[in-house]
Amino acid sequence: MSGKLAITGTGAVTPAGWGVAAMMEALASGETITPSLLERPCGDGILSTPVLRVPALGATTPKFGRLRRTSPISKFSAAAAMEALGEMRFAESTAGRLRVGVIFTLTNGCVNYSNRFFGEVLADPALASPILFPETVFNAPSSHLSALIGSTAPNDSLIGDASGFFTGIDLAAEWIERGDVNGCLVVAAEETDWLSAEALCLYSKAYLPAEGAGAIYLEAADGPAMLHHLPDPVSYQFHGRLTAARKMRETLAANDDGATLLVDSQSGVRRFDQPEVSAWRDWRGPRWSPKRVLGESMGAAGALQVIAAAEALKSGDYRQVVVSSVGANQQAAGILLGA
Asked: Which single residue of 35, 188, 215, 247 could bond 50 by disulfide (Cβ 3.0 to 4.6 Å)?
């Protein structure tokens, strides 16, 4: 990252509601969001899993033909992306005057439609709906986004844990600095399904699975949230999670002056939070932990952290924010943003 880059747009869809304002209000209040029960038949009974769902009320999914038959993850992504892009840039993109790249990061993908399609295949292959199949692939949401904004610029989907969003930002920076795009939407999203929700709870019953989406618009410009430092992530291939978390903190070199905000990836599950707790144990400044309010949205969690950081800078309450993401199984990542 050689030139100046800024986050000039943000968008979010969370269990707190549709839009960044709803998310920030939830984080400011710190109040617990009431979970709902995800139920499915299991043997002679019903298996119930508490989850945090995006509320149906207040949906801002744009009207677009390709979104009529899509799964929730694509609808969440479209709403967050449009909020981050804004009306003016959307008009410029659809008119072909602005080259907007799309980078989509995720962990589970279109699990709802995958479940439906393969369920139909198992029940009766002859009756399995071909309409569902295109929505089962990992790059379906990113494809819809480029079509929505009329973009022919580069489009990539990256599969990883929550820290993969930072890799997405790094790729976006490369595209911008190389002149491939004028700006880039970096989007992450997840949807709730019994498969991913129950799988997460196998690690700990204390996890609260969640869904939602986050999007940022990155461009070479001045803005309230400038990218000061985006180090390479520390892979778990050669380091444990604790060592990786400590190395990431050292590399970020955030000024612990008591006024710099730390946005961490702690979820409240002690066993999995411990590496990050240890790495940042002596941090004196203020700290936010979005997952403790918004739940464990897996691949979308890193995006929501970055959006919270950008909004904190936009408010003027902080001059610098450091984001730490200790991924579940791949890498530790982070970013330093400043005014």
From this structure: 35
